[in-house]
Design a protein that fits this description.
- There is one protein chain.
- 31% of the residues lie in helices and 17% in strands.
- By secondary structure, it is of the alpha/beta class.
- Helix 1 crosses helix 5 and helix 10 runs parallel beside helix 11.
- The longest helix is centred in the C-terminal third of the chain and has 18 residues.
Length: 337
């Protein structure tokens, strides 16, 4: 199969393919999604086949506006209107209880709930409108590997497996959306993202708990990205705490290990490495934007025995960064033991 790269003036072509049951990757402000018509179960099945993704993993349904959700949602949480007014379009996915039979079990993972998002990307909103149906859109990569933040990343992973990619350059945020469960009484974050716990609490005026439960391989997650290990390159990743860099570098030298460095300029300048990916600046925003690109670049270079990755405080956007990094590193920090 030829995988075409679509530009803005070719969105109609991309939408036509989606209506026919083909797969087309699309850009969002977070990462690129692997699009299929959410109302065509056979097309959705192809998403799982192409990604190599377990079929019990529910998919996020991408809509062009809030009204699109009404065909599927059984009931809305009382805070839904306030949440949507403040955060849609944007990097926030909402989980609702849905009408029985309104979506295929292949979309919901067999659950009585489904996840919905209105991405903040004009090209993709136009694509959904022109398709005339919502789109499922898990990250457009091989399952378990770092998510794609450019069309080139998608092409690298899925060339010849999907019909096309709608190109809109590099994504702005770099990690997947926050997932907020609104199917129960208390809004609960299942996956942290750029819409932070602090932002939600400020708007809603209530405490918004974070579900830190890590789903085992045998369990069905309620939202994507809840597995213990995820986003992982082939090269092992170790997280390095601020005071451990010298000891970690010394350990690598002693044991003859070539280190790939994933860090801010401040750290990278202190520990030169032939194989390294340096974030654009010393900020959590730059680190989050570059995390998946850096993991991919170091992995594909195939020059490192181990990747040393910088950690950040687990609050605000740092919570989303560390959530992804911990899974990429299989929860492992450097230790001298």
């Amino acid at each position: 199969m030829e995988t075409k790269i679509f530009q803005t003036d070719q969105i109609n072509q991309a939408a036509a393919l989606l209506r026919q049951g083909e797969l087309v990757a699309f850009p969002t402000e977070t990462v690129y999604g692997l699009g299929a018509n959410a109302l065509l179960p056979e097309a959705v099945k192809q998403v799982f086949a192409v990604k190599g993704r377990p079929s019990d993993n529910p998919l996020i349904v991408h809509v062009a506006d809030f009204l699109m959700t009404q065909e599927f949602v059984e009931s809305y949480h009382p805070l839904t209107e306030k949440i949507v007014q403040n955060f849609w379009p944007g990097p926030l996915t909402l989980i609702f209880s849905i009408k029985k039979g309104s979506l295929s079990p292949i979309v919901t993972g067999g659950l009585s709930t489904a996840a919905f998002r209105m991405p903040d990307n004009k090209k993709t909103l136009s694509l959904i409108e022109k398709t005339g149906a919502p789109l499922v859109g898990p990250s457009a990569n091989t399952s378990g590997k770092p998510s794609p933040t450019t069309a080139l990343h998608v092409f690298h992973d899925l060339k010849g497996k999907i019909a096309g990619i709608l190109d809109d350059g590099a994504t702005q945020i770099g990690v997947e959306s926050t997932v907020l469960d609104l199917s129960g009484e208390v809004p609960t974050i299942l996956r942290p993202g750029a819409v932070t716990k602090e932002k939600l609490e400020e708007v809603l005026g209530i405490e918004v708990p974070l579900d830190k439960h890590l789903v085992k391989e045998s369990e069905t997650p309620k939202a994507p990205g809840m597995k213990y290990k995820h986003y992982s390159p082939d090269v092992p990743v170790l997280m390095i705490k601020p005071g451990d860099w010298e000891k970690a570098i010394a350990w690598a030298n002693t044991n003859g290990k070539t280190v790939g460095l994933l860090a801010t300029p401040k750290i990278a300048d202190s520990y030169p490495s032939a194989d390294r990916f340096v974030f654009e600046e010393d900020s959590i925003e730059a680190a989050t934007r570059g995390l998946f690109s850096g993991l991919r670049a170091l992995d594909e270079a195939k020059q490192s025995d181990v990747i040393f990755a910088e950690v950040f405080p687990e609050d605000h956007l740092g919570l989303a960064y560390m959530n992804r990094l911990k899974k990429a590193a299989a929860q492992k920090y450097f230790t001298e033991k």
